[in-house]
Specification:
The protein has about 425 residues and is of the alpha+beta class. Helix content is about 30%, strand content about 25%. β8 and β9 form a beta hairpin. The longest helix is centred in the middle third of the chain and has 13 residues. The termini are close together.
Length: about 425
């Protein structure tokens, strides 16, 4: 098992390219189940989660190939299989997005419930509610969602939940509705750029969707969808992570290949904290020239501040002057990184869905344990400025969502390396 070894280094400087969005490519791969033809994807990142999804797709009769230019091609060879097994679905929650396409195209689906989540329950009840509204018969047996439908029927569906709209639920219902008979109206749809990218991919396949990017989607079902070619949108969370790296080290970092409009709330928060931000058509540059300022951050559904950048910004606020408050309104238990940051001399007190962060001015290196994808990124960021050495264990978490993170940070001047961890977890 690998670990990342990080030491305090110079301010990071330079340009870093952003990869394709993990949270966009996974449901897009699921959407290729909606056609019997091949599809090609450009910009798909080579990540642990993507590899898991490719294994699942192959098991469902849709193997994939990468060419030398990084283009991913799907190829349909068998449409008789409709089971997504537990051993794959348990490792990645996005696997649940094969449910809607399998049901709509193949008339049946048997998909394992996703595994548990370290930052609290993430139920799939809205997925089931939406598909039942489209006419599916759904039973829960032996840990599997078993769905059947000869032909789905258009319906009006509301997908809002207690913590906002469901992103993967919107993806599942939207994909199923593209092949339903008649018109479907999805109210309370998630508006995240990754959902918009999925919708654009579906339109490229011949789907008829109005209201893309809004909380109200109108879908006129069609009889068949065809193959298409698509370029995956840039990963706004990866971009935000590298921007924090530049700000936290007092450096000058430019993230290239990114759409600034997908990070509006984040860029405003950078400016509030005291970081200079410059935006271009496809780049964002951050420079820090003075002390970091305290702030209040509340995670919200898009276009609000993303929950996937909460942990990274908490590290930034740990070095800011004064007291900051971080409120988690998407996943109220998403504070597993706090305990590890305390080991690095951070001063953070958790109170329900809030974390009170008292700026300490400096952090101390320590061996730490990653609990999830974004927490692992936060611990790497902390290691960039902590005095001494930081060993981030369970690096497989970070490999789920960051493509060669140590190489990209090293190119900016970070002191970081990947090493074998003989002690394991």
């Amino acid at each position: 098992m690998d670990k990342l070894v990080v030491s305090e280094g110079p301010p990071l400087r330079g340009e870093v390219p952003v990869s394709g969005a993990k949270n966009a490519v996974l449901p897009i791969l699921a959407a290729t189940l909606l056609t019997g033809e091949s599809c090609t994807l450009r910009g798909a990142p080579r990540l642990r989660d993507v590899n898991t999804m490719l294994r699942l797709m192959e098991g469902l009769g849709v193997p994939t190939t990468w060419d030398d230019d990084g283009v991913l091609t799907t190829r349909v060879i068998d449409e008789d299989v409709a089971t997504a097994p537990y051993d794959l679905v348990k490792t990645m929650r996005a696997s649940i997005t094969v449910l809607g396409p399998l049901l709509a195209r193949r008339g049946r689906a048997r998909v394992s419930f996703p595994g548990g989540c370290v930052f609290g329950p993430r139920p799939v009840d809205l997925h089931i509610k939406g598909l039942r509204a489209l006419g599916a018969e759904i039973d829960i047996e032996e840990g599997y969602i078993e769905a059947r439908a000869d032909r789905l029927k258009g319906a009006r569906i509301f997908l809002g939940g207690p913590f906002g709209s469901t992103v993967t639920g919107t993806a599942n219902v939207l994909m199923a509705a593209t092949l339903a008979e008649g018109q479907s109206v999805i109210e309370g749809a998630a508006c995240e750029p990754e959902v918009t990218d999925l919708a654009e991919f579906l339109v490229g396949m011949g789907a008829r969707i109005e209201g893309i990017g809004s909380p109200r989607l109108l879908v006129d079902g069609v009889d068949e969808l065809h193959g298409t070619s698509h370029c995956v949108i840039p990963d706004r969370i990866e971009a935000g992570t590298f921007l924090v790296a530049g700000a936290i080290t007092g450096g000058d970092v430019t993230v290239t290949g990114i759409r600034p409009d997908t990070l509006t709330a984040v860029l405003e928060k950078f400016r509030e904290i005291g970081v200079d931000v410059t935006e271009g058509e496809n780049f964002i540059r951050v420079r820090r020239r003075g002390p970091l300022l305290n702030a209040e951050i509340t995670t919200l559904p898009y276009p609000g501040f993303p929950t996937d950048l909460q942990a990274q910004f908490m590290v930034l606020l740990s070095l800011a002057d004064g007291v900051s408050i971080v409120t988690e309104k998407i996943y109220p238990e998403r504070f597993m990184h706090v305990a590890e940051l305390l080991r690095m001399r951070a001063q953070i007190r958790k109170e329900g869905p809030n974390a009170i962060v008292i700026g300490t001015g400096w952090l101390s290196g320590a061996p730490v344990m990653a609990s999830d994808l974004r927490a692992s990124a936060a611990l790497v960021l902390a290691g960039l400025v902590a005095k001494g050495r930081t060993d981030v264990k369970r690096v497989y978490h970070i490999d789920r969502g960051y493509e060669r993170i140590e190489e990209k940070l090293s190119a900016l001047g970070a002191v970081i390396s990947r090493e074998d961890d003989p002690e394991g977890p």
